[in-house]
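Entry 14. Structure prediction run on the chain below.
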Amino acid sequence: MPRTVARLIVDALQELGVRHVFGVVGDALNPLTDAIRTTDGLSWVGCRHEEAAAFAAGAQSQLSGRLGVCMGTVGPGSVHLLNGLYDAAKSRTPVLAIAGQVPTAEMGGDYFQEVDNDLLFRDVAVYRATLTSPGQLPRMLEAAVRAATGERGVAVLTVPADLGECEVPDDRPARFPRSGPVIRPDDTGIRAASDLINAGGRTTLLVGRGAREARTEVLALAERLSAPMVLTLKAKEGFEHDNPYQVGQTGLIGNPAAVHALEDCDTLIMLGTDFPYRDWYPTGCRTVQIDLHPRHLGRRTPVDVGLVGDTAATLRALLPHVDAVEGSTHLDRARARFDDWLAGQRKLAEPRRDQHSLLGRMRSALDNRGHDVRPEALAAAVDAFADDDAIFTSDTGMATVWLSRFVTMRGRRRLLGSYDLGSMANAMPQALGAQLWAPDRQVVAFCGDGGLSMLLGDLMTIRAYRLPVKLVVFDNRRLGMVKLEQEQSGLPEYGTELDNPDFAAVATALGLTGIRVTDPSDLQDGVRRAFGTPGPVLLDVLTNPGELAVPGKPTVEQGWGFAIARIKETLRSHDG
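Output returned:
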């Protein structure tokens, strides 16, 4: 008996190894969700918001390297997918979105809920198409999946409401590629790169997420060149642990050691990174860049030699031609600076540090929040209690800053965030997808209070599926990163304050375990309880809203900006 459109699509997803499909049920999706209901090994995950569904699907794709799948029904349901799909697109991870549409006879007539999906998803998708006849399957589905996996992006297949139950005339299984090519530069490019590197001087590596599968080769290059290794945030999970060459991150979340390692180099080698912040690149040095994507070469900083290729394959070809460097002065200086910075960070992470310092008591008096917990201490405590194979997610903003500085990616730990799109509200839904992907591993979400409240409804999804996610809320009653941006520009804080509920009480009302910490002396016990309690837990910690994250290279202008902003804020509080 011929298969229906819905059955063919769902059978293909099962064949691809997809385990979960995320979305909100309704009208055009009903045949598809019914087919999922009767399919072994494939589960429907009903979310409260399609944006959360897209974030969850993208998280699974990033963790597995395989296709993530989400669905949004006609009109608004598909529109709601957009933000999560943009995050997947910017993260270059394969996601297939099945979008509902009005019946074919009504298309183009401004029907109720009708949205032009091909236009809607034009910017975000590497492939988008609307099914208008069952005879277009399985060819159209094959094209969508090949585009998503081959180009590592988002594909959108729109299915009108009247086609899901129609029979497909060409009843054959969908066929998909099982592997992709390994690309490396030609020998001329390899020689040009090795000649430049062998010209001598101090060399620094800037390593990104694209080099994660080349850890062995990257460490071998650092050893041969005695080169300090600056990591992007997305490279933490692959290169931070057991690495005698790494000196942390640069940029606004970075440290002075990484800044000096870049500024003091004669040669910069960029490996699998498209680090976007131009102001943090060194000038006056020779630059080699290796990246799989040609469009990345030279778009952030000028490069002398740009090589298109897989990082591991390219370095295997390059290493035999690179001369070993005698001496390690450049590396030793960078590591010494890094160790000094780490020691200072450990002092900041002492839970009751503010109560024992004059500066801390002054800060508490100005903020009138003497019992607020230091966010550094909270992040450090989570790092200590979390498993060595935990999966971490972090909201964009200050939660990411504290994670980057105080959580180490030791063991088999993984890290996810909206690090390319920079969306709010990503940590909780990404944790949802991660926990379903790895049910036996600990999943920890670093949530900002603003981000959590934006998609708060999907706490009920975590409860409904009994997912043992640990949600750590940095509750500073602020949009903290926006506050920081305003103050460094000399502007007083405005529009950033949040009138939050007791998030632990909200979690308890929703059927999760809620724990609230308001005093530094209760921090260790609160974190211990959160990680020792079975099932989903929300740990709501009131953190100091006045805490600053000093960048690796603070400027005089930033210092004056903060001083002027704080004076304005103090005068305003007296006037009020």
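The radius of gyration is 25 Å.
Filed with the rest of this week's runs.
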